[in-house]
Every structure is written in structure tokens, then in C-alpha cells.
Amino acid sequence: MIKMGIFSFFFAKKKESHKDSTQNKMRDDNNHLNNDDFSSAQKDSAILSKIDLLVKRSVQLEPKGDIDELQNCLYQLYSLINKPGCSQYIIQYGDKLNLALCFVFMLKYDWVNDPDIREVWAEDGFYCIQEYLDNQPYGRQGQAEGMIIYFTLLSVGRNSLKPKIQDILDKAKQVGNNVFHQDDYSLGAQHVIDQFALLSVSGIRVLGQKAVPIMSRICQRYNGTEFFQKTISRTDLMKYDPMDIIQKSRFVRNVIGTILNEA
């Protein structure tokens, strides 16, 4: 995780970047990737190193508002993982929180406007954030920071995530999977996504007084106001055990992870 933390990210001030040193490091990694003497393991390491630089650079660029440079950085990042056999790098890359945030940026600052690609970004982002939530070592604070990105991902990517969740529901219903409730099967993907959204909002609330300015900033920057208001008004969803919702989220993550592993 970039040490400034997610709270600081949403309120980050503009600073001068170390652009030259980053670009020099990326040139070095490109030279490694083009070196035929490198072993497969060394090339994998070089690719992961380049991914790490691009992720960190993207997270630094977004608060500055330099959208052209951010989109270029995101394009380079996506180009590294959007090739046959390269989905493994999403699984292997360690900083799942900031990688999820980059998929949020791709959805918000979309430069291709292709529904199929947006679905992939939403699915990959969902995989990364649930992986982070299950494995982060930072306790309650880390869990809350993960929920911030979870809600932000749903704010910009819920419609793109819907086809995959509906497909999962359809297949789960055929085999009588008990992870989902009958309501989920009857009402469909949007109903499940609404549960995920309420879960994420509840997770952010543990931040206490910090939660209000963070949610305000998310809604402002990621067009999430209407989605947030609709989410907190869904009192009918209170009947679901949060652990049941987490299990549903993990199930969706596992399906996406299987696809990534086979791609």
C-alpha cells in the first residue's frame, strides 16, 4: 500500500512528482523484457516490477487531475495484463488495494468506451478488492480502507459488473448453490450488488467522524451520490447477515479468480 493511506489519498494535495526517475526505471524494465537471455522467472519479475511502478504512478497522478497522463499510464498498465497468459500477474501482484484502485480509475477515465472491456475492468477490480479484504494485515483500519475502494468500485463499475454476477447466479441456481438466497435468484444481480454496496458502507462507518468526509468526497469525485443515497435507504437489506454477504462476495471473487488463472 502506498504509505499515505486511502484517507490521505482522497484529500491529497498536489505535489511535484519524480517523473524522470520513474520513467528511467520503466525503461530499464523494458530493456529486461526485450532481453532474450532473461529467464521466464526474470521476465515475470521485470513485468511485476513495471506493473508496480505503473500502479504507484497512477495513484500519484489521479489526485493531480492530469487525466491525459493518467490515461496513458493506465493504458500501459492494462497492456501488460491484457494478453494471453498475463492474467497471472493480477493474481501475483501484491498490492491488491492500489491495483483495485487503478481498475476504478480505468472505469472512471475510460478511454475506449467498450462495454466488454469495462466488464473485464470491473471484474478484475472486484477480484483485487476482495483479495485485499481477505488478506490485508492492517486490522480494522485496513478493512475500512478496503471497503472505501469496494464502494468506489461499485459506484463506477456496478453496471459493468452486473453481467458476470448474473451469469454466476444463473449457474449457481442450476446446481442449487446455497451461498445465495432465493431472493438473490429471484431478484438477480442488482439485488446482490446492492447487498455488496450496503456492506461496504457499513464497513466505512467504523471510521467514525472520518467516514462522512470520505463518503462525501467519493460521491463527489465518482458520481456516487445517487448510488449512496439509494444504498442507505435499502432497509430491506438489513435482514441479511453480513457474513452471508461476505460469503457471496468471496464466491464471486473465486469465480473471477478461476477465470484469471485459466486465461
Description:
The radius of gyration is 19 Å and the shape is globular. It has 263 residues and is mainly α. It contains 13 helices and no strands. The protein has helices at 5-10, 19-33, 40-61, 67-81, 88-92, 96-108, 115-135, 139-174, 182-187, 189-204, 211-221, 225-232, 242-262.
What descriptors fit this protein?
single chain; mainly alpha; 13 helices; globular; 263 residues
Strand content: under 5%
Please state the CA-atom Rg, rounded to the nearest Å.
Answer: 19 Å
Rounded average pLDDT: 88
Instruction: Sketch the major β-sheet.
Output: none
Q: Tell me the number of helical segments per DSSP (H or I, 4 or more residues long).
A: 13
Detail the poorly predicted runs. none
Alpha-carbon distance between the termini?
26 Å
Q: Give the number of DSSP strands.
A: 0
Order of helices and strands: HHHHHHHHHHHHH
The helix/strand class is mainly alpha
Helix fraction, binned, reads over 70%
Shape: globular
Q: In brief, what are we looking at here?
A:
By secondary structure, the chain is an all-alpha fold. Helices cover 74% and strands 0% of the residues. The model has no long low-confidence stretch (mean pLDDT 88).
List the helices and strands and how they pair.
Blueprint: H1 5-10, H2 19-33, H3 40-61, H4 67-81, H5 88-92, H6 96-108, H7 115-135, H8 139-174, H9 182-187, H10 189-204, H11 211-221, H12 225-232, H13 242-262
Helix pairs in contact: 2-3, 3-4, 3-6, 6-7, 6-8, 7-8, 7-13, 8-10, 10-13, 11-12
